[in-house]
Amino acid sequence: MAPSLGEAHSSMKVPQNAAWWKKFLAFVGPGYLVAVGYMDPGNWATDIAGGSQFGYTLLSVILISNLMAVVLQSLAGKLGIVTGRDLAQACRERFSMPVVIVLWILCELAIAATDLAEVIGSAIALKLLFNIPMLYGVIITAVDVLVILLLQNKGFRALESLVIVLMATIALCFGIDLFLAKPDMGGVMHGFVPSAEILQNPAMLYIAIGIIGATVMPHNLYLHSSIVQTRQIEQTPKGKKEAILYSTMDSTIALTLALFINAAILIVSAAVFHSAGMTQVAEITDAYHLLTPLLGTTIASILFGVALLASGQNSTLTGTLSGQIVMEGFLNIRIPAWLRRLVTRLIAIIPAVIVTAIAGEHGTEELLILSQVVLSLQLPFAVIPLVMFTSDKKSMGAFANKLWLKIISWIIAGVIVVLNVYLIIQTILLF
After folding, report:
1. CB atoms inside a 10 Å sphere around CB 180
2. What CA–CA distance (Å, rounded) separates 109 from 253?
3. CA distance 131 to 301
4. pLDDT tens digits, residue range 185-222?
5. What is the pTM (predicted TM-score) of this model?
6. If we measure between CA atoms, which residue out of 3, 279, 318 comes closest to residue 156?
7. What's the count of helices (H) and strands (E) in the chain, helices before strands?
């Protein structure tokens, strides 16, 4: 079976007989592409709502969901490095064709939902920063497909570099907003300690599950298992072991940055809105407009808007890559990159345009929430096969999950399944 992303497969050399840090730098990149999905516009609404309603309490949920992500992404990276197969290809090899087709459809729906969140997030940012009507903003987002194509022609490293620059922009913007918000550091530290109140308060539990559902992204598992293969490594047990170590370091550091950004969104919301008694701020637009009067400076709102735009654009890059990987992996269908990007983007833009035209801005905010529910539906269908495959000694050999890692992985999979089912039921009841 030919590798996915054939044009980039093993395209980046890893220096041999070099210092460890030089080897590590050669592996830096895929983790940041993956981390992007953990801070996309879909996360913003849940983080803002959690901070405004419950202060710093739900910071522990962001921390726990991030730790889950670290484990799952390390498994995805390991699968790609050891077997030379991404998660979609592994599913195609192991399962019957009807099962593969169902998994592919679910995955395409999840990618479309992700792309929908990016389209809406970018359109909201364009409206807030430049007063461009939402309908036009949604249409403008189609142009970034051309940017992706242009970058891919310059090599995979160019794509990784842009993602890292955009992530640094988001981190800088929220770093300044954090400074301006002057949060209660004692409250922040206390917020990272899990509280029994989260399980006892239904409203708090609902948002907590929303944070987990919006944080752990199913398409990232397919993405990571493929893009780790862009590195040219020694196909020996020693070479693979080394690659797993550096790949895990890369994704863990990148996800720690994602943790900082997600936590910063919630902390700013808690410090600015919750402390002012504004406990019902849940929409991105409201947060943007309220930051200036409450902090006494327009720079806070502008930085918020810039970070949102960077977040939307960043997530678009990884979403379209994921689309290519799952189509090639599940179906072994290879179509021109430009056509794949165009189809992926149109699937997201068409419902966004229709809803914006009919229901206006409020409709797009509801569409953003719905996109996260679709992602929640898909998540177990990506996590369970991943844990199964990486625990299988037949395909993984000496790299199969150890007993302790198996236990942790299955606990995470079980928690995700239970929480996502609960979230879906609650959302259906709300609608």
Report:
1. 18
2. 29
3. 14
4. 999 999 999 888 888 887 888 788 777 766 777 888 99
5. 0.89
6. 318
7. 19, 2
